[in-house]
């Protein structure tokens, strides 16, 4: 008996040791960056150009260059034709304030040439005016020329009248190319003088879209008939429903390359000569070989594929292995620049995935860490597709809403900012300040990366970008369509050319569920050498010849900096501890608290992530932390608030003089630190001028009871559960919505004038218990259906005022 007990005790002890070692091994991760050195090739691509001011843009095999320095484009898609022109400027300013530096926009041929030979470039279709506003606010532009765009537009942008022609569209037929030549000629007239070569903001154009990969459905369709796609007969067998991996061998690939070459030649002959030509490169799509950048994509919540964990949260070397491979080109000859990173998705009648707003930041951290040297969002700003002559221009035959093109984007259909607008801003500020250092750095993947699959939520997902010595660790803890848990007791061991870095040097850290982090190592900040930091770089401010390095801390990771060649006595800290640590100097604060310190006249500020999400850059030397929306303009700043009529503004660094406000009252607020100037701004309270009248269970009227005086906008929030809802004025459809678990939010200023004479009617339709789209709903979100098998409930209609004030900082 004693012998048995001894053996059992021994087995228990061995099991404990094995379990302990396994857990220990799993939580201690190692990566060796000493061989990280990206080979840069120049001069092999037929791209690049200069402007009259002497500025130049060039493209090597790994990144873009502006005046021979690495340039990291942050591109946001915004369709001018899908937004009222009188609000374009505010939207462009919102994009700029969010950290976007390049705006991409489609030219939808069928909207501009609705009748053959009659082009319309007026009002909401005024491409030139839109580009002028982009230029006014010192941003760059990429114009997506078509002729085919898709964009969930009728025929993908191809005019109706091309269907009944004796030639294939999207082909090398001379008659078709003749029409393209006329289209490009018209576009060239609209953007004349606006190209980079003229000193203008247009640095690039996209040729076609997903050529030999995807197509739209023709408008001419009969219920029950086979779908006919907007593609040439030669490409029928290689066309996909959406952005996909292409499993089909394309025997017609040379024809595709020839077509893209033809389009580039037509564009250049029309005078559209730009430094950058792009072409969608995923899934074996055709590009201009060595004459265009093959841009990439990633959609984690597609409507054209089954619901399930995607690979877009797994780190990889995207330069060598692009998403949606195989591709039609040698990826190592081109930089990895995405154009369609899905910040949302356009839902259809039969498929309605809800994009988790927490999913977007981790996907972008993964994309940047995987070697991307550009970021391109589709869509960054939603909109409403216009109606012309009673025709709807969304792709109705594809099951899309007739007007709404909200896309669940960071900036919604009516200009409202969503959570991922703010979370992405953290990355954009980082890329603005550190993109030049990051762009040449190679992606290094740890050994553990090989074993991770989308359903593995227990292994730390991370990658490093490094030059062999310095770099950044990119990590996240998210997977679409799967629940994740906090990853605890983690440590990183990084082998660099100058030695080993253990992060943190003592203790461990946790990466909480849905969170991500970017941590620097061996980073020289203007002479202050950081061995490592467990806080994420946010931005760098330059104020009166002093640099301010702003970081933010994440819950679960104790915030600390470890400096080399910095004496402990040279650090002046506020709310932080300073100690010597084996020849290094460590500065540490408390998680969730603000702390700051100075090293050799360089100022460091650390704020918690919730506060960083409220950060706005006014200029290169000033930030404001606030829940309000901050839009810097020439000589003043607009302050918008749609979450209350009182807001706090915290300025960093402190202001020398008190700002002046108009349209709001203000008072000096309590200061959380000696480093901030704090003010409380109060807007005169205004009741939204609307009244709700219930006509029936399925019809509600909204009446205008006054003007918008004192308000910038009013958001009508319609909280309902059903199949779909539509809005009418004078019997005409002006807005629509497919229910997907979120309230319908409508910006009412768009309808202010029309509603002075007519009411707005909301019409609702019940959800059916056999609806195909229920596959995209969590079981807890599916209502209990009646015996009739249907459900409709309008719970509440709320009107949220958006206030506006002006501020001048002396």
Show the helix and strand layout.
Elements: H1 2-27, E1 28-32, E2 49-50, E3 56-59, E4 64-66, E5 69-71, E6 74-77, H2 88-97, E7 102-106, H3 109-112, H4 127-136, E8 140-146, H5 174-190, E9 202-207, H6 253-269, E10 276-280, E11 293-298, E12 338-342, H7 360-369, E13 375-378, E14 383-384, E15 387-388, E16 391-392, E17 404-405, H8 419-438, E18 442-444, E19 461-466, E20 471-476, E21 487-496, E22 499-503, E23 509-511, E24 516-525, E25 528-533, E26 536-543, E27 546-553, E28 560-564, E29 571-574, E30 577-581, E31 584-588, E32 595-599, E33 602-608, H9 609-612, E34 615-619, E35 622-625, E36 629-633, E37 636-641, E38 646-652, E39 660-662, E40 665-668, E41 677-682, E42 690-696, E43 699-704, E44 713-721, E45 724-729, E46 732-738, E47 744-747, E48 760-765, E49 767-768, E50 790-791, E51 793-808
Parallel strand pairs: 1-21, 6-7, 6-13, 7-8, 8-9, 9-10, 10-11, 11-12, 12-13, 27-33
Antiparallel strand pairs: 2-3, 3-4, 4-5, 14-17, 15-16, 18-19, 19-20, 20-24, 21-22, 21-23, 24-25, 25-28, 26-27, 28-31, 29-32, 30-31, 32-33, 34-35, 35-38, 36-37, 37-51, 38-41, 39-51, 40-41, 42-43, 43-48, 44-47, 44-51, 45-46, 45-48, 49-50
